[in-house]
Amino acid sequence: MPLRRAQPGAPPGRGRPRAAPGPPRSPAAAAPGPPRSPAAARLLPPLLPLLLLVGARPGAQATSVKKHSLNPNGSLWDMDYEGLLHSKKTLPGTVGSYKPSSLFRSSSLLSHQGRSLPSQNLGQKPQEKQLSCDMLLKLSRYILMDTFGPSLAWNLFRFYNCDREVNLPKIRISPLKVAQQKVKPFLLRRVLQLLRNMGVLSDAQQSKAFSLLKKQMLKPRKTPLKPEVEQSGPCPEAAPHLAPWRPGSDTRRAAVVGRGAALRLESSAAFHSLVIRDGGRLVFADRPHGPPITLRARYVLIHDGGELHIGSERCPYGSRATISLYGRAAEGAAVEGFGQKFVGVGRGGVLELHGRRPRSWTLLDKTLHPGGLRHGPYSSEKRWGSRGLNLRILDAGTARVLAAGRFDTHLRPGECRRLRAFLALQAPGRVVAAAVGDSAARSLTLETRLLLRDRLGSGYIARLGYRQPWALVGILGGDQLSTAEDKREYHGNGTTGLAVAQRDFLTYDGTRFTVTAFSGWIKGVPHNGFKVEVSKGIILHLVDEVTSWLPGDRIVVASTDYSMHQAEEFNLLPCPECKSNQVKIDGSPLYRHIGEVIDGVDMRAEVGLLTRNILIQGEMEDSCYGQNQCQFFSFDTFGGHIKILRNFSSVHMSGVELKNMGQQILGSYPVHFHLAEDVDERGGYERPTYLDNLAIHHCFSRCVAIHGTHGLLVKDTIGYDTLGHCFFLEDGTEQRNTFYHNLGLLTRSGTILPSDRNEAMCLAIRSHVYGNYVPVPSTDCMAVSTFWIANPNNNLIENAAAGAQDVGIWYIFHRVPTGQSEGQYPEGQAEHTPLGVFYNNRVHSNFKAGLFIGKGVKTTRASAEDPREYLTVDNARFRPHQDADPEKPRVPAVIDGLIAFKNNDHGAWARGGDIIFRNSGFSDNGIGLTLASDGTFPTDEGSSLEVTRSIFVGESSNFGSQGGQNSYWGKGANGEYRTLPRNKTFPIRGFQIYDGPVRMAKCTFKKFTPTVDRYSSAIGFFMKNSWQISPQNNVSQILMEKSVGLKVFFGRSGQWFGNNDNDGDKMSIFHDLDGSVTGYPDTFVGRADNYLLRHPGCLTVPRWNAVMSTGKFAQLYIQARRPENLTLSIARAAYHSHPLRLQGVNRGAPYQQYQPVVMLEQDYIIQWDGRAPEDIILYPINFNRGDWLRVALCYPREAVFQVVADIYRRRTGTVHSVKHYLAAPSRASALNSTGERLFYFDRASGYLFVHLQAHEARRGHSYCSQQGCERIKIMAHMHPGDSWSCAPNPFPQRPAAAQRPVSQHPAGPCRACGAPQLAITSTPSVKYIRIQIQSLHRADTQNHLTSAFIKINDTVFLFNSRGIFFVVLDACSGAVVSRRHFDTVTGENAASAITDYVQTFIKERSLVLVCSRDIADVAGSSEMSVFTRLGSAKPIVFHKEEGHSLCVCFSGSFAMLGYKGQAKPSWIKVLNHAGYQKAASLQHYIPLELKEYQCPANADESLKFAFSENHLEHISAEPAG
Asked: Are 1220 and 1237 in contact (CB under 8 A)?
């Protein structure tokens, strides 16, 4: 395929980099042929379906290379896919102009997890069988995209992979249309076969299509395929024309690599500056076994055909290379357009940096506890005040300290008795640690010494002397061989040194830990203490293979709590015992980092690699200096930066680490694309520009800044511990950029923009405000975000925003382009632009919100009219429309697959319309999700927001950790202490309704239970809300699990709610369509004191502060002028003694507005707290044709009226269909007429009566009809002194009209309610089952708890007999395959029966669930090694009951999640509790069909047990054999 030329008008150098003059290149490099861009192609295909192109999620790049023994220099990168396609056309509907051929010349097309590799000559029939499944899948995606458009391809292949089908939609595809594609016939045939196997190929015309392809395959080939010639030649540093360069160190030298120079840098060098220009070429030598190369300079500038290469796409750099930028601020002259301390790429420049590409980041697969131990490390050190024997008792299976005691056996004789009693309570087999404090010998009796000798296995205690240091670690009931013991002699000189006893143990989960006891005298002061800590490094279990992570590398583990400051860094240690998904760290974690799915939401911590073998860094001073904002920062913030200007020739960076980069100066960022315009094929670049696998950390101004640049791919990049917005779009014009699988965490505040600043910075930096204006931090500033997306037409796919000072991902809207992009689009375009792809992103540990959609920036300079600074946070609404044209239909913005947890304020906030959240999980947020409308009537024509197929959790089992700037620690709903959002008293809400209309369907709520400190409700409302509330808000198919203690709450006066008396507070309402929340279908739920909603058939729910009502409801929008500051009183005639008083929302505006929710076909009375306004407009909002109200308005009796009806067109501001009302002769004639427009003024009562009715049809969520907004305008002429007092009720007295009683038709069971997914995870294609195991011990049964149970999804197995119970599931399908009960109390040979069952009857690839019930107190011990076959790291120690030598009875409780098979999954758990401990209980979400299970291909077909319905099963004493 011929080389594609640069587009007309493209600057020189675009397309292929211009070759430097000089010696001729090698034949391979000079030969003509298509451009070789394996890495670029490799980066793009995984994104293509999500970008409306082609491809599948990557995940096996490293695995594939390892599996086939290929390396980046080998043939994997040379595979030819050019022959796959005959067509040269571009893909339709794409955001760029990617060629199909380049898309398929990709390593990610080759193989996935070891599948077969295709041959280079795919046209030969014998090789046809070798076509890989993944490659065929990608080809199918491309063909469907080209034939039927992006929507079908996206819907069909979204979750489909080569292993199985997942919820394929009901789609039928024409085979003849597919067969007409210009693709090789044999490949088309394979595609059709795949589609047929998927069940989506239409039956009609299949035979004809296959016959047509067969004929084409039999046609003789006219010309053989020519072998493709390499374009890029050998690795850059191996090019023969490069001259060796060893320039040495001279910081005064301004080095230039210019025309005719092609140099290989072979040793470290230092310059004042380095300029590469005029075709000059500099390549770093790659010597993996040689010394690292460091280039130091104040700046490096590449332009006008200059090229800098470190490695290449095909030959990643294998050595270590560093570019170190030095210099202080204001030291030396700045370079125009670039500044100081930079790597700059100007017009025609080439920057190619390609280091090793290790896995950038992954997720924890097993929870990392503080200190690496489930119950944390333990440390205790005493000096004076601990005289006697100090003891600690530990559980050998968990390293938990169970008991502690101090016994003054020196001065108090009675302490020996207490010591013996203490030891008698401890079970044999426990770990014991002992240490003398001061002295313990004088009153230590012989009897006690002998007991200690026998129970502790001590060889020294019998001769323990005065003030003699002694320490011991051993096993209770063990002998001296199981004991570590040490002593020192006391000589009276005040220093003995320390007696240290130390011994290692193993927990049930395989963690090796060390118990240390010490005792001694130092300078006359006694010392003693204990330590429990992990031995020789902590091993992390990760989701993905990380063999590319090396000893000495540095990683960061993200916080999984409310504070981002719980992120922790560690160095990696050598770990020969580690599996491919494990690493060992050198430190001890301070906080808990979750590594599992909890309560259905994926809370696994991100783990990122910070080390790369190419490093670009700024050299820093020890502290802040000069004009570097030192009032806010104690450290130097003048780092290096990389700046790329438009018309560069080629820029690609992969496998690069950036450290100490960025400056607190506008435009100086770690990586900055500055006004570069289109940087993909649309801009004439054969190889679209990308940043891949960068580690940007400890930087001083952003991470990646994209300014006036479009089509950039940012992939697998980490931004950690940075100042200001991290991944940053600047002016609002930036579009078509893709952020794929990036991780940002610990995003701190900066000073550059108002939105970067924290409160202190906001108040202090006032140089750009007008006059003496003092900024308001909460509204002007405090918006720093990890992803700052200034234009919605960008793609966010599988990213993680794991901790920002304010927001994780913020979609912000520029009403007009700002900065240097001013004038590039018309006003309001960004707000109307449809959203790009948002798929499978994670946001957590952010202070303000995980995801925020809404608001904008101030686009005018500070002035007297608006003194706020330019780019201050401002108001905006997101209202996407087709082609960004508000006259065209709305285009819903779809947020698909958001995971939001442990965000202090909001999981997500979205304002606008239409916006749809689906397949999302919200847990442990102050407020899970708030949906706020586009605007308020009449400025908003009516839009909707929706959340569906999602899970909401109030207080999960992720209890968090104290410290790390977590502010609140208090009791949760279950009585256990936990971290809390916002405040101990903050009212937690899952789904918050602001105004509406909003819809919620098929959602599940868990664990919303109030406490004595705070309210916690599944559904709540915006507090202190003066805004409108729509009765169109509705919910359906909602599942409230039993753990929800408060389904709905309308607030009460008090803290947080204030007086709970604002207009929106009073009008709060939603519609329960099917009764899944209230228990009664077609029920409206409003606040209890709102009598506008009531009728005699209503039900009051005091706990909710709510009333449940039936009927038809809409809104009455009332505008009032002259005056605009009145309080409106509105009452239903049937409840005229219970009026609702509304303040209005527009205090100080030209008109006031009120918007009560009203029951239709009723009589209403409107009064004011002063003389009625002169102008009143009544709009029937959300009225359907024929809906009506009768309204009486109070006026002075001398008033004269003009009443007009018209239809108002909101967008044009024009009216039509003007009709004048006539005065009616009577009230009855005015109120009962539906044809003639009449009003009646009763001068005796002072009431004006009008009949308000909708005459036009309304559609969808529009407030008004399709013709416009119908309204009645009432203009009253009144004299200043007119009296305006009116009677309470001008309507005839009659009881409230009968409505259907709420309780007449209770809702039945809803089997389809709730989210269809058990869990919302970052791997949506992985199936999970939910396991709960609850054992009981004797104390539980004495408290009348009778049944232990094992729960699998919604199926419960109850165990009422004493003993141990097994339930076994197939690990591939989740089917229950076996259940067994063992009576360990009265049954004989129970131990051998259990052993036989596990070894013989439980098959490989089995999940094994074990629980126990009511086993008697025992003495003695026994251990069962058979549990090691199920994943326990050591035998389980049970305690025998005396007199039952064959009995495996014990006093406590036991629970286990085990696995029988070749693998040892990270989810294996063992709990073996003593009788005085809480009964063993486990909850876990276990993944099915993991690769390590080695499931057969037809695993899905073996599913035999249905978990879709609730199921309860009592398991009796099923004999063991």
From this structure: yes
CA distance linking residue 777 with residue 759, whole number of Å: 5
Sign of the torsion angle spanned by Cα atoms 578, 584, 590, 592 = negative
pTM of the model: 0.86
Closest to 693 (Cα-Cα) out of 353, 357, 362: 357
CA distance 924 to 601: 10
Distance, CA of 571 to CA of 580 (rounded, Å): 17
Please state the three-class secondary structure of 1372-1383 as a single string: CCCCEEEEEEEC
Quick check: 10 and 680 in contact, CB under 8 A?
A: no
Helix pair angle (185-198, 133-148), 10° resolution = 90
The helix/strand/coil state of 181 is: coil
| The two structure tokens encoding residue 745 | 């965490």
Q: How many helices (H) and strands (E) does the chain have?
A: 18, 92
Give the orientation angle of helix 206-218 with respect to helix 185-198, to 10 degrees: 160
- One-letter-per-residue 3-state SS of 476-520: CCCCHHHCEEEECCCCCCCCCEEEEEEEEEECCCCCEEEEEEEEE
What sections of 634-776 are H helices per DSSP? 759-764
User: Angle, nearest 10°, between helix axes 446-456 and 415-424?
Assistant: 20
Extract the tokens encoding 11: 């600057």
For residue 885, whether the previous peptide bond is cis, meaning omega lies within 30 degrees of 0, is: no
- Percentages helix, strand, coil for the chain, rounded to the nearest 5? 15, 35, 55
CB 134 within 8 Å of CB 56: yes
Q: Report how far residue 286's alpha carbon sits from residue 292's, in angstroms, rounded to the nearest whole number.
A: 9
Under 8 Å CB-to-CB from 12, ≥6 apart: which residues? Answer: 18, 348
Say whether 969 sits in a helix, a strand or coil.
strand
**Please, which residues have CB within 8 angstroms of residue 223's CB and are 6 or more apart in sequence?**
none
Question: Are 920 and 907 spatial neighbours (Cβ–Cβ below 8 Å)?
Answer: no
What is each CA distance from 28 to 232, 240, 650, 933, 1467, in whole angstroms? 8, 12, 20, 61, 52
pLDDT along the chain (1521 residues), means of 10: 38 42 37 39 41 36 35 29 32 33 31 32 36 66 66 58 55 74 74 77 72 69 38 71 96 96 97 97 93 97 98 96 96 95 98 98 97 95 93 94 95 93 90 96 94 93 95 91 93 87 95 96 94 95 97 98 98 96 96 98 98 98 95 97 98 98 97 98 96 98 98 98 98 97 98 98 97 97 98 97 98 96 93 96 98 96 97 94 92 96 97 94 98 74 88 97 89 93 94 93 97 96 89 96 97 93 93 96 96 94 96 94 92 95 82 93 95 94 92 95 92 89 91 84 95 89 85 94 86 82 87 95 94 85 74 94 94 95 79 92 97 62 84 81 40 90 95 85 95 81 43 47 37
Q: How crowded is residue 1186: how many other Cβ atoms within 10 Å of its Cβ?
A: 12
3-class secondary structure, 46: helix
Measured distance CA(1453)–CA(1416) in Å, rounded? 10
Q: How far apart are CA 1030 and CA 325, in angstroms?
A: 58
Alpha-carbon span 477 to 461, nearest angstrom: 15
- SS3 of residue 217 by DSSP: helix
Question: To which H or E segment does residue 1328 belong?
Answer: strand 1328-1334
What angle do helix axes 133-148 and 150-157 make, rounded to 10 degrees? 150
DSSP 398-423: T--EEEEEEE-TTT-TTHHHHHHHHH
Q: Is 930 helix (H, G, I), strand (E, B) or coil?
A: strand
Dihedral angle sign, alpha carbons of residues 971, 976, 982, 986: negative
Phi, psi (rounded to 5 degrees) for 1391: -60, -45
- Nearest CA among 1350, 1458, 1329 for reference residue 1404: 1458
* Pairing assessment for the beta strands 1016-1021 and 988-993 based on DSSP bridges: parallel
Angle at alpha carbon of residue 141, lines to 139 and 142, rounded to 5°? 65
